[in-house]
Amino acid sequence: MVMLVISLIGFSIKSNIGDPVRDLVGERVTPAERAAIADQLGLNDPFLKQYTRFVKNVCHGDFGTSLIYRKPCLEVILKHAPATIELVLGAALIIILISLPLGVFAALKPKHLFSRFLMGFSTLGVSIPVFLTAIMFIYLFSVILGWLPSYGRGETVDIFNNGYWNSGFLTLDGLQHLVLPCVSLASIMLPLYIRLIRSEMMEVLETEYIKYAWAKGLAPMRIWLVHAFKNTLLPVVTVFGLQIGIMFAFTILTETVFQWQGMGFMFLEAIERADISLLIAYLVIVASVFVLVNTVVDIFYGFINPTVRISGTK
Amino acid sequence: MSHLLELHDLEVKFALRTGDIIAIDGVDLTLDKGETLGLVGESGAGKSVTGFSIINLISKPGYISKGKIIFDGEVISSFSDEKMREIRGNKISMIFQDPMMTLNPVFTIGTQMIETLLAHKNISKSEATKIALEKLQKVQIPSPETRLDQYPHELSGGMRQRIIIAIALLTDPQIIIADEPTTALDVTIQAEIMDLLQELCETDHMSLILITHDLAVVSQVTEEIAVMYAGKIIESGATNEVISNPRHPYTKGLINSIPGSIKPGEKLQQIPGMMPTLSKIPPGCAFNPRCLEKIGICETNIPEPKKTDVGTMASCHLI
Q1: Above 50 in pLDDT, residue A313?
Q2: Which domains does chain B carry?
Q3: Which phi and psi angles does A163 have, rounded to 5°?
Q4: Fewer CB within 10 Å of terminal CB in chain B, N or C?
Q5: Is residue A287 part of a domain?
Q6: Residue A134 falls within a domain, yes or no?
Q7: How many separate domains does chain A show?
Q8: What pLDDT score was predicted for residue A24?
Q9: Which one-letter DSSP state was computed for residue B32?
């Protein structure tokens, strides 16, 4: 359903913006010839007919041909996707590894000096835009300190030997190139997560079942890290699922600053050169990533929350 | 003779921004082995806080500011958290008010039972499972094996309270503190749960502190009773004496407000007014603004506990 709406919007843009005939043959063709080509391409068919044709092609993986790359859009996107996926994955990993312990700490010791510092710092973190963080990082770590590279993906390894997935995770150089972009991308979500986990956890700690766990004489570590933590995770997982999708969109900024050859970078290039087919293909694919990620998160949610699990036998 | 549990001049304060508030004001209580004690009073009288203070688990701004709690010959009110943990859920178990909120929704019944055992006893998981099953049978839960794998939301309120009782029994505690264990349940199930608790305490010689506002329940279940008002015990003694010959006007008012005490069709009697907020306790006897038998001295002097003609203790100037 979601996918249908997205494809409809995408297609409307495609059919209304730009003139594919001019794009194809240039300016020096007579109007009669143009009409013939438009007819041949099916551009004079009714909207609905064109749309069904579009959906049918998409279902077969045919998004049309990209103007700048002169290759099928799908292939272009698939070539750029791994870079973006690795970026998002790296950022997500950073967020999970840092926000969980910090959020839990801030919830358990709300009056501790470090927790107060964390809260203040996270407000600051949320309010600084990604591109500014990214530029500051480049200036500090690449220009002044010279520790980390500032652009590109570095040395990559073709994992599946088919020319599509070039991974930066496997080489030291690739990993070094990943650090700054991932941290920049994570910077906007990280403070948000620390705050979310902190407030959820504090709420859980006030509940009756936590008080009961104390009354049962359980060890503090078990109460905090098992009883309270699992209940804290429930809302956090839902939000995280939504945010991963949003992070794909945020990569546009990060990729531009770091000259990262991913989908976001490709998207901007496509806009600059009015490569509409590629734009629409990007739109539809990112939308499907959203849907996919949310489905996966919902399934995962079922594993940690027994109340949403459907029990077959009673 | 030494008692199993003694509360000496216990005072609990809540540290609020506006200053400390006294929630429990000099409470003395004793409990012997196998004895059942009812702690009665209106909401906010301090009965639950008294119960929680015994296992040193008063909600955050609250703390024990004076007095001591002696359990089994040891002053547990000065125990460290570490040492207190060996008593909580082991020698003194608690049953909470609302079974819907007490069990953690994301863990199975089995997990929540076994973890309690493993926290206190040096036994294997399979031994713990065996004990858990045994206790589930004791609280008359049908098909206990399947319950272990179920989550709290799959069970009804009455069933959950039975499970909480089973958890309380796991370590064969000496005292069970039941904080309004039936308030959140249906009337028919209330009776079942109370009968079960009473029976278990008798057969296992466990002491029970029953915290409730329901005088009818107390009179059926407990041997001793303590009536609380505004953080103080105002009348205490053998349950049947206190119920049939109340000497404190507040206790009288409570008994008169039970539906069974008047003819059908008549309007129920009630105690006029409300209990004062803890920050605004009136001078003299805390009950004096609502008291029907008030005399001059009640507004100025705090009454001391005195022995009554029927052998109970009551804090009232009229005695």
Answers
A1: no
A2: 5-91+171-282 (3.40.50.300)
A3: 85, -5
A4: N
A5: yes
A6: yes
A7: 2
A8: 62
A9: -
Q: Does residue A173 carry a pLDDT above 80? A: no
B90 contact residues in A (CB cutoff 8 A): 217
Mean pLDDT score across all residues of chain B: 89
Q: Which residues of B17-56 are buried (b: 16+ CB within 10 A; e: fewer)?
A: eeeebbbbbbbebbbeeebbbbbbbbebbbbbbbbbbbbb
Do B106 and A305 count as a contact with CB atoms less than 8 A apart?
A: yes
Assign residue A185 the CATH number of its domain. Answer: 1.10.3720.10
| Chain B partners within 8 Å of A215 (Cβ) | 55, 57, 88-89, 93-94, 96
3-state secondary structure B104-147: CCCCCHHHHHHHHHHHHCCCCHHHHHHHHHHHHHHCCCCCHHHH
CB contact (8 A) between residue A215 and residue B86: no
| Residue whose entry in the numeric block shows the structure tokens 């125990």 | B79
Confirm if A262 and A153 have CB atoms less than 8 A apart: no
B283-303 pLDDT, tens per residue?
A: 889 998 888 888 888 888 899
Task: Give the amino acid at B40.
Answer: V
**What does DSSP say about strands B36-40 and B224-229: parallel, antiparallel, or unpaired?**
parallel
Does the beta carbon of A16 lie under 8 angstroms from any beta carbon of chain B? Answer: no
